[in-house]
Specification:
single chain, 348 residues, alpha/beta, TIM Barrel, 8-stranded parallel barrel, 14 helices, 12 strands, 44% helix, 14% strand
């Protein structure tokens, strides 16, 4: 039941709405009034009023798509069910993956929208530090950077599993620190899983996260966050000791509960050995076609940069397209041929 004081408040709102100077504003006020009445009723009928108020105060939607005519994001019916972490993990059965896992990086909603129909996983990589922000390495990337970009990717996708990188300094200190960072990323962005770098040293952290409901992708071999220790971005596993450590790192992460492991920048036989040694899927980048899936930085694959790592295959030359398009625009502006009649408003 709605109390007497609340009834009086509702009556006043109704009177104010009906006295609005125009019909449109009156209609909007009455609509708001009706929503208020529904919420008040639900709050008083619930044994937990505070929870009822929270549940009715915001309309929730997990699926947002960009309207390409306006560049705005709107809730839409979900065209298909999003892939899940267990579905990705189960691609590998008895050591065999019959359908390789397709992964690309994504950092924005529109980019996610274009990549999503073709991918199984969208990785919001800390490589955004270099690709988006022009940083020298991934070391300066912050938790808030990752959270904001991951949220955009989730909004722009409906099919792929969205995985977000844990940035340097957000998880290494302790499993508890890792949980704090990972839970923040997932709650803020809606991502399904996190990825962290490191092998045996991070196994306890991976186990800690998985046991508390946070799916984890591991990362072995060339780990860019450790560039200052590694001394550069050279391929790993060329020595016997180095090769054994990479395999041991992967096995430790697999046993700790990682549902997939990125294998980056290792000599090919080591990537094959790792793939055979672990029960979860391996995602190669500069590794081997025999891995259970592949990932590339999307901007590298599209040809946004002239200089890319050896393991990148350029499938396009988007940099040339952008440069030529900008050149044509600049020429038309300087020649005063843009805007033309089609792009201007004329008197009727």
């Amino acid at each position: 039941m709605v109390g007497q004081g609340e009834r009086a408040g509702v009556a006043k709102l109704k009177a104010d709405a009906l006295s609005a100077p125009d019909k449109d504003s009156a209609g909007v006020r009455l609509m708001s009034l009706e929503q208020t009445q529904v919420r008040l009723a639900s709050c008083h009928s619930s044994p937990f009023p505070s929870f009822a108020r929270a549940a009715t105060s915001t309309a929730m939607s997990t699926t947002f798509q960009l309207d390409t005519s306006t560049s705005r994001s709107h809730p839409t019916p979900q065209p298909m069910r999003r892939l899940t972490v267990p579905a990705i993990r189960d691609r590998k059965q008895d050591g065999v993956t019959t359908e390789p896992i397709v992964v690309l990086t994504a950092y924005t909603a529109r980019q996610a929208q274009l990549l999503d129909p073709h991918c199984d996983v969208l990785l919001v990589g800390d490589s955004l530090g270099q690709v988006i922000y022009g940083l020298d390495s991934t070391i300066p990337v912050t938790l808030d950077m990752m959270a904001n970009h991951a949220a955009a990717v989730v909004r722009g996708s409906y099919h792929s599993v969205v995985v977000v990188d844990m940035p340097f300094g957000a998880y290494e200190a302790s499993p508890e620190k890792a949980f704090e960072s990972a839970s923040y990323l997932m709650k803020f962005s809606g991502a399904a899983a996190v990825k962290l770098e490191g092998g045996e040293a991070m196994a306890d952290t991976v186990s800690f996260l998985v046991q508390r409901g946070i799916p984890v992708v591991g990362h072995v071999g060339l780990t860019p966050q450790a560039v200052n220790v590694l001394g550069g971005y050279r391929a790993r596993g060329r020595s016997e000791a180095g090769a054994k450590k990479i395999v041991a790192d992967a096995v430790a992460l697999d046993e700790a509960g990682a549902f997939a492991i990125v294998v980056e920048g290792v000599v090919e036989p080591i990537a094959v050995d790792v793939t055979k040694a672990v029960s979860c899927p391996t995602i190669g980048i500069g590794a081997s076609a025999q891995c259970d899936g592949q990932v590339l930085v999307t901007e590298d694959m599209l040809g946004m940069f002239e200089r890319v790592p050896r393991f990148v295959k350029r499938y396009g030359d988007i940099a040339e397209v952008i440069a030529e398009t900008a050149k044509k625009y600049a020429e038309e502006v300087r020649a005063r041929t843009f805007p033309g009649e089609e792009q201007t408003y004329q008197p009727k």
